[in-house]
Amino acid sequence: MHQRHQAKTDASANAEKVPQENQPFTADDLTRAWDAYIETVGGRVNLKHTMINCRPVLKGDDTFEIVVHNPGQREVLLQNNAAILQSLRGQLKNGRVRFTVRIDETNEKRLAYTSKEKYDLLLEVNPALARLKEEFNLTFD
């Protein structure tokens, strides 16, 4: 039992002695590593499309941000956080790489509940709807 404990202690000591890589990287390096990871995701369609459509933006020496369009995209990135980081850290030779995910509020879908809200949203898409409403003397319930 003493030998097994000693082996664990030696392994822990050796792990502490291995310096963590901290190579600086550029936005282009990050993009190349991101694209390389996309090629490995296989049949995980949601992850692949999210990574293709939501590109990383370097925010600091070791930190980047991904701006997504909806909560589902945020969730798929966070669920795959460990695998993404492991790949990027290896490719970039930087063990400190981190990322944040932010939902772009301007793209987040607005929900219309009342008839007036629904009309206003449709009016943004098709302004000719106002003429139709007036011509047929339509009202909201």
TrEMBL record:
Superkingdom: Bacteria
Residue numbers spanned by region Disordered: 1-24
Official protein name in the record: DNA polymerase III subunit gamma/tau
